[in-house]
Amino acid sequence: RKEVEQDPGPFNVPEGATVAFNCTYSNSASQSFFWYRQDCRKEPKLLMSVYSSGNEDGRFTAQLNRASQYISLLIRDSKLSDSATYLCGEPDSWGKLQFGAGTQVVVTP
Amino acid sequence: GAGVSQSPSNKVTEKGKDVELRCDPISGHTALYWYRQSLGQGLEFLIYFQGNSAPDKSGLPSDRFSAERTGGSVSTLTIQRTQQEDSAVYLCASSPGANEQFFGPGTRLTVL
């Protein structure tokens, strides 16, 4: 079983709608998680860090469910520019950040 | 700039040749990672350096791949006797510790 798992999608979202997707993790002791976005042929860029129950930054909300060992990312009022692959990262027991394979989001006009 | 830099940005080589890819991490970051990403695929972990500890080489796909980090700063990833399946984007990232990583723009390697 992979340490970090994500639904690959694609999630096709009408512009203005809300989309949410999850990332499951296996290290129950993890204290921090990270969401990155990666545009086509670009490097991943940090979107949000999650250190406690969740985090919110504008239209983006991350929530942590420790009991079920997953974090979610919710995007409200989707913009065309939100189209990207969203990667979830979790440090392992030695501090090495591990990534899921990513969830593709496609926002359509 | 203060970000992670990588060179070259693109590298085209012939099968069987050796290549060296360079990464300059953010100053002061103790952790440095190398990843490989094929088109449309996720990040494939290659190697991890943390401070003065022995590197975690568990992701290197074969003994043709090696990496070093000199003086706790610049890192070089070397691929010997390149094969066509080595063609990918090689990404470097640095981190101040067990925290968020900051990625460089990558080196696109094409093996003919």
Describe the protein:
- The complex is a heterodimer of chains A (109) and B (112).
- In chain A, the strands form 2 sheets. In chain A, strands 2, 4, 5, 9, 10 and 11 form a 6-stranded mixed β-sheet that branches. Chain A has a 5-stranded antiparallel β-sheet with strand order 1-3-8-7-6, with no helix packed on it.
- With 109 residues, chain A is mainly beta.
- In chain A, a hairpin with a 6-residue loop joins strand 4 (33-38) and strand 5.
- Chain A has no helices and 11 strands.
- In chain B, strands 2, 4, 5, 8, 9 and 10 form a 6-stranded mixed β-sheet that branches. In chain B, strands 1-3-7-6 form a 4-stranded antiparallel β-sheet, with no helix packed on it.
- The N and C termini of chain B lie far apart (33 Å).
- Chain A binds chain B through residues 32, 34, 42-46, 49, 87, 89, 91, 94-102, and chain B through 31, 33, 41-43, 45, 48, 50, 56, 91, 95, 97-106.
List the helices and strands and how they pair.
The complex is a heterodimer of chains A (109) and B (112).
Chain A: E1 4-6, E2 11-14, E3 19-25, E4 33-38, E5 45-50, E6 54-57, E7 60-65, E8 70-75, E9 84-91, E10 97-99, E11 103-108
Parallel strand pairs in A: 2-11
Antiparallel strand pairs in A: 1-3, 3-8, 4-5, 4-9, 6-7, 7-8, 9-10, 9-11
Chain B: E1 5-7, E2 10-13, E3 19-24, E4 31-37, E5 44-50, E6 65-69, E7 75-79, E8 88-95, E9 102-103, E10 107-111
